Known about the structure:
- The chain is an alpha/beta fold.
- The chain contains eight helices and seven strands; from the N terminus they run E-H-E-H-E-H-E-H-E-H-E-H-H-H-E.
- Strands 3-2-1-4-5-6-7 form a seven-stranded parallel sheet, with helices on both faces.
- Helix 1 links the parallel strand 1 and strand 2.
- Helix 3 runs parallel beside helix 4 and helix 4 packs parallel to helix 5.
- Nicotinamide-adenine-dinucleotide binds next to helix 1, helix 4 and helix 6.
Amino acid sequence: MGRLSGKIAIITGGAQGLGEGIATVFAREGATIIITDLNDKEGQATAKKLGGHFRRQDVIVEAAWESLLADVEREFGGIDVLVNNAGIGNTGRAQDPEHTTLEDWQRIHRVNSEGVFLGCKHVIPAMRRRGGGSIVNLSSIAALVPTPFITPYGAAKAGVLHLTRSVALYCAETKSGIRCNAIHPGQIRTPMHDILVRQIAEREGLEESLVRGEFLKKIPMGEFGSAEDIGHAALYLACDESKHVTGISLVVDGGMDLSQ
Ligand SMILES: NC(=O)c1ccc[n+]([C@@H]2O[C@H](COP(=O)([O-])OP(=O)(O)OC[C@H]3O[C@@H](n4cnc5c(N)ncnc54)[C@H](O)[C@@H]3O)[C@@H](O)[C@H]2O)c1
């Protein structure tokens, strides 16, 4: 307990799913949490439940990052941890390289890759003013393996991996005291994952339980991860125990990557 005592942490897309799991662990460990999301209702409810704060934010809008960080510095005295978690998955249309629309490609890259870039870009000066900090970016196992049926998603998450390493080296070489690391979740049951299962089931004319069972077969440890599993990985990267760790890819996937 208390591994994040005194730390101010922003978690984007924290209304539900992995962001909520991360916020739950951070709050339990003593952080002051600021959840941001497009979804006001869920975001406010989650923040209230965890004793944290909520701010409406669209991660793809640069001006929203500027005002969020200015407000947080003014209200809380600075920012120690940013978790770039907000992301989108399936658009409901085909996402193979032959049939993906340019619009879908751009939309997925804007949220999953550009949103993370904007977060890193604007939090660096704020963390430098604080004397350092930790940035945690949500990539995916999809960044590490070819993704023929979710190609824009995999490419955007691979972009997050590269960005993370560049930010980490930049921040280390400029002696900013800022670390930047990526987490690569495998299959974690969240609203995003449930939608993916439903869409595959509808497309293939199968029962959802059958599709879920097929996903499960790909996880050597035999069970889906939980949002709190990702929360615990983020906790390690956010707290001072990882003070010598930057630019890493922390894979949390029940062994999936081993069996690809
Ligand atoms: N669930 C998994 O198995 C899994 C696996 C690998 C990676 N991830 C990644 O983890 C992150 C969280 O995934 P999840 O499963 O919890 O998804 P989710 O859809 O359940 O939750 C994502 C949250 O992000 C918010 N959001 C979406 N676009 C936003 C925007 N432009 N600005 C602000 N908020 C926005 C949504 O409103 C939602 O509350 C994503 O980046 C996702 O790609 C998830």
